[in-house]
Amino acid sequence: MGKRTKQYKKLMRSFEFLGFRQPYQLLITSDVLVDTLKLDLLHLFEKTLATKDLKPMITQCCIRALYQQNTGPNRNPAAAAAIERAKTFERRRCGHMMDQDPLREFECMMSVVDPKGKGENKFRYVVVTQDEALRERLRSVVPTPLMYVRRSVMILEPMSEASARVREREERVKFTGGIIRQPQAQKRKREHDGDGSDDDSSGSEDEGKQGAEGGESKAKKKKKKKRNYGPKQPNPLATKKAKKPSTGAEQLPRKPAAAGEAEPPAEAKAKRKRCKKSKTDAGEAVSNEAKQEDAVLSAPAPAAVAIADAKS
């Protein structure tokens, strides 16, 4: 059952490509109602078409056929129950007069499904019937899904050859529509672009009549307004920063000279660069400082020197 359900879903998607939309319109004949009195017909429809969005319909002529079966010496006992079920469905007005003899279901169904006789299911009906002759005739009407009941199982027929050919043609047109441009579309594009070469067979007389006016109009069409973005400047991320001119020595702020002091010469104003001292220079400087400290410590105090001078 799962495999059959997948096949039916795929088949209905193919019919949707040809214009079928939900809710599906189910056109039911009287023989289906008589044969499925013990079955849940709506559940079978929903399970077969894999949707609950359905609209079961029955024509007036089919209702009359059920009333005829319920009367007369050859009365069908199942016709009364079939009539009660048919009243729950939507009535499809077929347009056949009530005071006249009702048409046979075959003729009524053909007039409803194919009203103009062109072999086209204009209103996209899904036909449910037990009549094999009617199903054979409707296979030539495209696109028409056909359903019938066999041993309490609802069966959806495969797509007919006529419908399959129409579907292949529609797919081919849809696939090649964006690749191969139609001549009318190319002509409209040339007219929109302002190209005067719509037809190659245009004579020299038409070209002479256009004259300077045609040339001016083309020049105006071709001209486009340019936006004024201002002067072009280099990309600031792609340029190097300008270097400042080197003066040899950085200028330091001058301090005001004290009263009575002479201003230092210009050479002394320039700050000398500090040089790194090597390890030997550092060692010599340390030893010189140590000698100076020893000399200071070994020198006699000034009071002792004064006493020695007095004694002498």
Automatic annotation (TrEMBL):
Major localization listed first in the record, in broad terms: nucleus
Chain positions covered by the region annotation Disordered: 164-312
Low complexity composition-biased segments: 254-267, 295-312
Record-linked Pfam families: Fcf1 (PF04900), UTP23_sensor (PF24779)
GO cellular component: small-subunit processome
GO process terms (BP): rRNA processing
ATP-binding among keywords: no
Biased composition (Basic residues): 219-229
Domain of life, per lineage: Eukaryota
Skewed-composition ranges (Basic and acidic residues): 164-174, 206-218
Protein name: U three protein 23
Species of provenance: Apodospora peruviana
